């Protein structure tokens, strides 16, 4: 089944060229199927790119998926046209009376700040509190994962000695968990962050469990035992070239940054990176949609 997105969303033309199965609202209403309603809080600066990356992964499902986007009211992004936000986005005030089957909270370029110092932290906490009653399952990515661990479970983060950037191998340690069904015992995932959550506190928390391990990157997948919250510490949604673009951007800023680990073939920045995490991304998102959202959400919210 397709993913249902507006006809004029810029991501549509990119995904259509990739032969991704898409549908517009007019066609969807002619099918007697109850779609899954997914809400995406997009905190990334390049919103159009993130839209495409997430919609691509949500598309690989037999379920019909309808997506709403929201942005923060308390902070206005400087990297996306206001016309784009006006046409394709809402705010929390617009949707807070609704219920959603699933939600995604993205990363954000604010990890150098304490949570309470983030200009929109109060708004984020209001949204995360709302998800406890109005959303079946929430997928949190990178900073979004750290924010969820802090807000819901009181787990802090700390600065890393140096930014972690690159492709790292992970080993599944909870192979019977539905979220990793079909994923290889060893898989690769992109990471790009300057902070780490307190993994020892996560491991000792009675309501959480870690699904994998990595010697150099720490765990990639963390889940709550009630299946309400999934935390992804990296960026499985990234395109093959995203880390390269981040690296060149940081160099242009004059930052003392290392080349992304195990990323450029032969460690040569002139060699085009290869996507080695695509299949895991598709599987992870389809498992979440099926087992944590579709199988658990009510047919009708009361």
Automatic annotation (TrEMBL):
Pathway, per record: Amino-acid biosynthesis; L-methionine biosynthesis via de novo pathway; O-acetyl-L-homoserine from L-homoserine: step 1/1
Keyword set, alphabetical order: Acyltransferase, Amino-acid biosynthesis, Cytoplasm, Methionine biosynthesis, Transferase
GO MF, one annotated term: homoserine O-acetyltransferase activity
Official protein name in the record: Homoserine O-acetyltransferase
Active-site residues per Swiss-Prot or TrEMBL entry: 142 (acyl-thioester intermediate), 235 (proton acceptor), 237
Site positions (Important for substrate specificity): 192
UniProt-listed InterPro entries: Class_I_gatase-like, HST_MetA, MetA_family
NCBIfam families in UniProt: metA (TIGR01001)
Organism (species): Natronobacillus azotifigens
């Amino acid at each position: 089944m397709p993913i249902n997105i507006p006809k004029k969303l810029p991501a549509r033309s990119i995904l259509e060229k990739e032969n991704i199965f898409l549908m517009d609202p007019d066609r969807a209403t002619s099918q007697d199927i109850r779609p899954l309603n997914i809400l995406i809080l997009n905190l990334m600066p390049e919103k159009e790119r993130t839209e495409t990356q997430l919609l691509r992964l949500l598309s690989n499902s037999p379920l019909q998926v309808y997506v709403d986007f929201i942005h923060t009211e308390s902070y206005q992004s400087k990297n996306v046209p206001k016309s784009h936000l006006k046409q394709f986005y809402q705010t929390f005030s617009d949707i807070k009376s609704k219920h959603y089957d699933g939600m995604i909270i993205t990363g954000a370029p604010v990890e150098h700040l304490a949570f309470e110092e983030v200009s929109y932290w109060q708004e984020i906490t209001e949204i995360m509190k709302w998800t406890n009653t109005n959303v079946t399952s929430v997928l949190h990515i990178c900073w979004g994962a750290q924010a969820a661990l802090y807000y819901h479970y009181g787990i802090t983060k700390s600065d890393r000695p140096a930014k972690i950037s690159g492709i790292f191998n992970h080993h599944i340690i909870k192979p019977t968990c539905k979220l990793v069904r079909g994923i290889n015992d060893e898989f690769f995932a992109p990471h790009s962050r300057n902070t780490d959550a307190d993994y020892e506190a996560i491991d000792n928390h009675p309501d959480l469990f870690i699904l994998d391990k990595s010697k150099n990157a720490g765990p990639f997948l963390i889940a709550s035992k009630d299946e309400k919250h999934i935390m992804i510490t990296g960026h499985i949604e990234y395109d093959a070239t995203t880390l390269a673009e981040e690296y060149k951007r940081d160099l242009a800023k004059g930052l003392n940054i290392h080349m992304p680990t195990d990323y450029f073939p032969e460690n040569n920045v002139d060699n085009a990176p290869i996507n080695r995490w695509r299949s895991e991304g598709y599987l992870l998102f389809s498992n979440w949609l099926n087992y944590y959202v579709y199988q658990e959400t009510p047919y009708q919210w009361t």
